[in-house]
Write a structure and sequence with these properties.
mainly alpha, Four Helix Bundle (Hemerythrin (Met), subunit A)
């Protein structure tokens, strides 16, 4: 196993800065367009990440750490950002995400998790038994997945403009 809580926190605490550097002050063309039906725009991704910070990761981590392995985690609405982000601009969402993430990282550190606690189990509503280690590893990969999704969405906007180089750009479908 490669999981390390400290290495995980290295990624988790940098994601807000990566998003801010990548998306701040870009126009609508880059931030509001997606790459097809049922895909997320960069704006959608940031809203989704804010919602996850508030309703997913640490709630589930606390449930596991408290030994509550019989009660399934609350369901997570992957599309809630379509409602919760209404009326907000991207700068607001980036600020909310940075604030929520900083609080969650602080709370995670305060848990002082050891190897035994990382093996404690909770119940996912779809997957059944999962460990705290798996949840925390998923949190990191979830961030990385959405950073990739943002890049893919942005690259998609120039898919026709790159000409023959498209053959060498794995981010674009062939």
């Amino acid at each position: 196993m490669n999981f390390s809580l400290q290495r995980s926190i290295q990624v988790l605490e940098r994601t807000p800065s990566v998003l801010r550097a990548s998306l701040s002050h870009l126009d609508y063309f880059w931030t509001e367009n997606n790459y097809g039906d049922k895909t997320f725009s960069p704006f959608d991704v940031v809203g989704h990440l804010v919602h996850a910070e508030r309703t997913n990761w640490m709630i589930r981590a606390r449930m596991i750490a408290e030994g509550n392995k019989m009660t399934p985690f609350p369901a997570f609405d992957r599309y809630a950002m379509h409602e919760t982000s209404k009326g907000k601009d991207l700068a607001d969402l980036l600020d909310e995400f940075a604030s929520e993430r900083a609080k969650n990282i602080s709370d995670l550190r305060a848990m002082n998790l050891d190897e035994t606690q990382l093996e404690m189990q909770g119940t996912h509503p779809d997957f059944g038994r999962v460990t705290l280690r798996e949840l925390l590893a998923t949190w990191v990969v979830h961030d990385l997945n959405h950073l990739h999704q943002i890049a893919k969405s942005m690259a998609w906007q120039y898919r026709e403009d790159v000409g023959p180089w498209r053959a060498f750009l794995s981010i674009l479908p062939k």
